[in-house]
Amino acid sequence: MATAKKLTDNHLTCAICTEVFTDPATLQCNHTFCKSCLLNYTKTQPEAVQAKSIPCPSCRQLTKVSRGPSADANVCSVCKTQGKTTPATSWCSVCDEVFCDGCLKMHNIMPMSRDHEVVDVSDATKKRARHRFMCKTHKDKQIELFCKDCRMAICHTCCSIKHRKCDDVDTLDNMTPLVREHLSNQNQELKTKMTTSENITILRKSQIKDIQTNAQNIKDEIRNIRQRVVEVILSKEKQLLDKVDRSSDEQVHELQAEIKSQEIELQMYQQQYEFTANAVTSNCERDMYAVYKSVGEASTYNRDTGKRPAQERVVFTHDMDKLSKAVDDLQLGEVAAVRCVSDRQSTPVLHHNIDCVADGDKKDIHLYDVTVLTVDGLTVTVVADYYNKSLKTYHTSDPNTLGNLLLSNGPCQIAKLSESQIAVSVPWSKEIVTVNVTPDPVLLSTIKTSKEYYALSSLSPSQLAAGAWKQPHSVDILDMAGGILKSINTGVIRSPDYIHVTSNNNLIVSKGRVNSLVCVTSEGEAVFTYTPTADRALTWPWGITTTSTGDILLVDGDSHKVIQLTESGQFVRDVLTQQDGLKYHYGISLDGDGFLYVTCGRFVRVFKFKKTVK
Questions:
Q1: Rounded to whole angstroms, how far apart are CA atoms 231 and 207?
Q2: CA-CA distance, 96 to 98, in Å (whole number)?
Q3: Which residues lie closer than 8 Å to 41 by C-beta, 6 or more apart?
Q4: Average pLDDT, the chain
Q5: Superfamily of domain 346-604
Q6: pLDDT tier at 9, thresholds 50, 70, 90
Q7: What 3-state class would DSSP assign to 533?
Q8: CB–CB of 545/576 below 8 Å?
Q9: Which pLDDT tens digit goes with each residue over 424-450?
Q10: Is pTM, for the whole model, over 0.70?
Q11: Residue 456: exposure state from Cβ atoms within 10 A (0-12, 13-18, ≥19)
Q12: What are the structural domain ranges in the chain?
């Protein structure tokens, strides 16, 4: 027969504990388990035990219970059949029965069992070690072989009768180390899978929480926008109502003045009427003619009230069709489920451009770096304009400049300290400035340095990682006063142009003239050096960022690409190419919503990612 081969499947393994059988016990359905596992299992099935049958843990087929599981384990098996409870003193590894001293003597003199191996029943460890693996077909035969073709543990009789045509049968002694090694390896794999599954579960729960939080924030933002629109409508309503009130008040005032005038005239007419009536009824002709003369003179000045201009009327006119169309065309915003560049099956789509030309710019635009902050719920894009010596801030949906901070020299890389504070390298002045974004950029402090640092990133709230001009192959770790705490070797890259600190505090550095990307730990241990060749060779690598899943995004200048790598430095894909409008691109950043920002000439191009349609 063939020699032993490497075991690749689960054999001789208990389905309950997933270990090699200890005291195998086979149920009537032919499923086998460790006896101790089966006894523990029966404790969870009290009704079945009371009915003297238990369901198989694998197939649920019932098996009759010949004796109590554990309570009678130390009672002589022979005496128990006679209704006695004689304590057992010995255990036969072949019969798998316990005996008292008297019954053991009978067991030892019987020809069929005199050669069986017997041990003290109190020695549980020795009992398990000496428990023989007996054939369920030939119950007096010990299983000593394993047929790999049939995947069965068998005795010699089974091998001679049923497995004569099998090609691969080996002894259990040879197989047991392989089985143990295989199961140990499997356990290690299971532990790894358990850890991975647990981490994925934690990640997914965190993602669910993030999704719910994000959804609530978006709802709040929509409600705020709706409130602002309502406030605009209410303001317009108030303007119209006020105009109605003003126009109506003017008309009422005019009419009230007219009424007052008429009341005065009425009193005058009443007086004249009474005076005239008295003159007519009196017998004095002198008084009558005197009245007649005064009435004639007074009538000369009478106003003709019938010729007064027609009264104005306030009217409200509106175009319901136009108003309805305006309401229909009203857009509070757009809600879309966007993917992230972390989804390697996603496709980039240009979302919008930010024009970074500002009033007062004296030279061409050179956007060295970009970062994105969230300030009081407002998404703010910050760019370092090297030629114009300025730091500019923009609202991502507004092309107008929000703020423009002039510096002593051209700013280079931006290090994000928090959602409202950044540090910016100003190499030619040997400075690092800290800036508060309100969203206008406000200078907080100027840190004087001993070297001209171009590359800059935040290692911790109190430490910066900086790469200096014309310095050895190293990155300096600085305190917030500019003091050098230590230097880290960066391998083939000298004087890095860009530094990015990953979520696990590794440092990734790039250099335009060195066609490599280097990753080291914060202690200076090499993680990887990415130096592809042929068509994938780097040509002037610049800006670096990482995704939420640890993937690396690298700007490669002369190839007009943004390249995606795994956390360990393996190529994934070209995320963006020249067809996406990449030209004169240097800085790169991701925001919390998965939008990708790349500086291109005078613009920051903003990309969103959608599902690839196959």
A1: 35
A2: 7
A3: 16, 33, 54, 57
A4: 85
A5: TolB, C-terminal domain (2.120.10.30)
A6: very low
A7: coil
A8: no
A9: 999 999 999 999 999 899 999 999 999
A10: no
A11: buried
A12: 24-185, 346-604
